[in-house]
Every structure is written in C-alpha cells, then in structure tokens.
Amino acid sequence: MAHNTARIGRRRRVLNEEVLTASALGIAARSRDDLTRQPGDTPRYGAGANIENHPQITDYVPRRYRMIASVVLVGMGLGVCGELIAADAPALSKLVGSVSPTELTATLADGLVAWVSAVALLVTACYARLIYSLRRHRVDDSRGRYRVWRLVAGVSVVLSANAFVGGHTLVARALGHLTGWSVLPGSVGWWLAPAALLGGWLLVKLMLEATECRTALVAYTLALACFFAAGLACCWLPAWATPWHDSLGRMVPLAGNIFLTAGTLLFARYVVLDVQGLIDHGPSPEPTRSAAMVANRKSDGGNVARFDGSHQSQSSAAQAGRGDNWTDGSETEDEADFDASRPLSKVERKRLRKQQARNRAA
Questions:
Q1: Cα–Cα distance, 73 to 265 (Å, whole number)
Q2: For the whole model, what pTM was predicted?
Q3: Which domain holds residue 308?
C-alpha cells in the first residue's frame, strides 16, 4: 500500500512538472511569430531542474553556530554510546549469550568510534578543499599560505581510511620486527613520531591561518591538546588512569578529530562570509610604494613614475627652484607655475646651465 502511495505521489509530481513546462512553452511560443517547433525542442526536464534553482556548494557551509555545535554534540554523543557499550559489554554478553565481551567491545565500541572518526575526517577533507578553492583567490596572500588547505584535504582522506582500517599499528609492528629496534613498547614510536611531526606542523599552520577567526583558533587549539594527550597516553600513563587506558585511547583521538572538523567548519564559514564582504576588517591600510608605482604607471599610460622622496620634499624642492627654471617668454605665468613642479627635460637643463653661466659672467 505504501509502495502504491509513493508511486502515485511520484506520478502526480511528474504530471505537475509536465503541465508547468507545457504552459511555459505555450507562453513562449505565443510570444514568437514562428509557432513551428522541431521534434527535439521539447525539454525532458521541468523548470525546477534548472541550475539556478539548486543550491551552490557554498550554500552547504553552516552559517549558524548552533549547527556547528550540533555537529560536535552528535559526534561526542556517538562516542559516548560506544563507551557505554564497552562498559556494559559483560552484561550485554550475558544477555546475548553467544557473543563474548571482547567481541562486543571490538565490534561495536571500537567500530562505532572508528566510523565517527572516519566521517569527521572526511568532512574535514571536503571543507578544507572548499576553503582552498576560495582562499587561493585572496589578493594579499603573497606567500601562498592557502596551499596548506590542499595538504590538509589529502592528509584527512588518508587518516579517514586509516581510522577505520587501523593500518598504522600493523606497519609499526612490521618495521619494528624488520629493524629489531623499538623505542616504545609495541613499536608505537614508528607511527607516533611521524604523526607527531606532521600533525603538529599542520595544526600549527592551521592555527596561524585561523588567527583572524577566533572560534576556529579555539577549536584547533582544543584539537591540538587532544592529540597531544592521546600521544602522551601511548607513551606514558599515570597509575590512577590505567583502568581507563582503552577508553582514553578511543575517546581522546575522537575528540581531537571532532574539534578539527569543527574548526574547519568555522573557518569555512568565516571565509565564505569574508568573500561576500560581510566581515568588517577596519580601515584599509595605506598603499605601499610598489602599489603606488603601479597606480602611477596606469595613470601615466605605461610611463614609470619617479619616486625621489615624499610629496612634501618634491613640492618644496619645486618651490625652491621655481626662480631658477628657464622660460622663453612664450608661456603665461599660470602655465609656468603649473609646469614648475614637473622635472626638467634634458634640453631645459642645458639651457638653464647656459643661463646660469651667463649670469655668473655678468
């Protein structure tokens, strides 16, 4: 019955689209003199399928803080559900009967946390790519700091696959077995050291990039703190926290991934609003000397302007040397005063030197 209802609703929508399209075509045809149409002129889709009637990719960037807060709460809530399953694994095992507590913990708790981490990192990769596509058009980024977002997108995809597969432990054990050398128990140092170096460098770059957006900076700082605590828990753990070793190993990296996603969402929101001109950056800075030279080149038709100092020094030097400028009497006083500020040509300087020599001789 429900299937038939869905088919009827689908048929009704298609008929409505056909009616609207036919009416639009009829109006357009009546407005033209030639009412003849070719057989292939009839469109296969209605007006609602046009591109302008669908959202752009930047429309998927959340504009409200409560939406980003809900993403954080949902991720944390799923992680808490996984921890509750791990804590009540013995009771659930007795209830089911055929599944051991270890299998419940490994399948449900670890799998749920790994899935949430993978989704969070994929979201981070998508929005990092969006930020890269917008930030690379910023005109004042002469050093190309926007390139870090392309690297973040690629690393997030790799970490998303690794969060679900867990290949870092296998690679670390294989390297420890082949080399016969391991600093930390379980060959943890083989994956912890590269992760600390690359991840710390990337997070510091993101924090420097997000200095204009304070909320994103706070989220990245929390993510860095969570990842640092997770790495510290792998190396050293106090005696009172030993019973919660497995829980800390699951929840602390998950919290870091969620805060990383939240920071990326916040900075994507900031970049989109900045592109739309909705963020006030205060008064614009004074144009630099190079910018002024470019402006003078454009205003002079391609001739390079001379910069011998500030405008005050040029005007004072022109006023001081106004009495020494050579004139042949063909110009009026206004024209002579107007041209006094411009630099003398080679011919004018030669005539001025001859006139000064005659004055000295007299």
A1: 14
A2: 0.68
A3: 291-361
Are 83 and 251 spatial neighbours (Cβ–Cβ below 8 Å)? yes
Could you read off the pLDDT of 30-76 as tens digits, one per residue? 555 445 555 556 677 777 788 888 888 999 999 999 999 999 999 99
Same domain, 242 and 324: no
Count of CB atoms within 10 A of residue 279's CB? 13
3-class secondary-structure state, position 143: coil
Say yes or no: 121 and 240 in one domain.
Answer: yes
Q: Which two tokens stand for residue 103?
A: 């299998």
Residues 231, 169, single domain; the answer is yes
Q: What is the pLDDT of residues 65-104, one digit of tens each?
A: 999 999 999 999 999 998 888 888 888 888 877 788 888 8
Same domain, 72 and 162: yes
Which tokens sit at 65?
């803080």
Cβ burial, residue 270 (10 Å; 0-12/13-18/19+):
buried
Can you tell me the distance from the alpha carbon of 124 to that of 24, in angstroms, rounded to the nearest whole number?
A: 43
Mean pLDDT across 221-237: 87
